[in-house]
Amino acid sequence: MRSSAPGRAAYGSVQTRARGCGTLLRVKEKESNRSRMASVAVLAGLALCTAATAQVFSRSDYLARDQAITVRYRSAQAACNALAGHRQDVCRAEARAAEKIARANLEAQYRPSAKARHHALVVAADARHAVARVRCEDRSGAARSTCVAAATAVRTAARDKARAMLDTAEAKARAAAQADEDRDEASGDTLASRYGAARQQCDGYVGKLKERCLSQAKAHYIKQP
């Protein structure tokens, strides 16, 4: 597939630096056509920011970030109007992909889990595949078929990697749960044996002393529900 690096270079530079959940974006524009790539880059930067921050935030913060994604997406789509033909198609596809990735990452961050992260990775793979297919549309014949096949292979590899990461995370979670259960059982067995030994010692007493001894042993070694 063709690289879009030369086209992006012509639209100026975008510097993105993540600071916690915030993103510092510096956009340098010298020509009107640069606004399209700048808008897409801003939206992509937001996607990277939401993916990089691994902490839960408030509902109001979530809604603000969601709205920011919407605003930047609309800006990116509007900027595509300055283009025409295949370049405009690619521009709109890039904007849609960046928005989908940003939203999926935001959801995974707001409700973190292995499955949520897996979903975000799958969304990213599919979104990038959609862009790649649009880029292939300016080719024909065998060249186009080769381009589409390469894009599909990249998506398949990304999906497989995401699935492997999910399987690994779930396996680790199961192992941790089993380890906790084993520790609880071992702890229970130890306490039971000690309680049995204490009861035997109580057999050396009679009457009220034995009752008190048994009561104290039970309170010390038997876990209350």
Q: What profile does the largest beta sheet have?
A: 2 strands, antiparallel
- Counted beta strands: 2
**Portion of residues within helices:** over 70%
Query: Helical element count?
Result: 7
What are the main properties of this structure?
disordered N terminus, 5% strand, 225 residues, mainly alpha, single chain
Can you tell me about this structure?
The N and C termini lie far apart (64 Å). The model is unreliable at 1-44 and 46-54 (pLDDT under 50). The protein has a domain at 5-113. It has 7 helices and 2 strands; from the N terminus they run H-E-E-H-H-H-H-H-H. With 225 residues, it is mainly alpha-helical. Helices cover 76% and strands 5% of the residues. Strands 1-2 form a two-stranded antiparallel sheet. It has helices at residues 5-10, 34-52, 59-79, 85-110, 114-136, 141-202, 207-221, and strands spanning 14-19, 22-27.
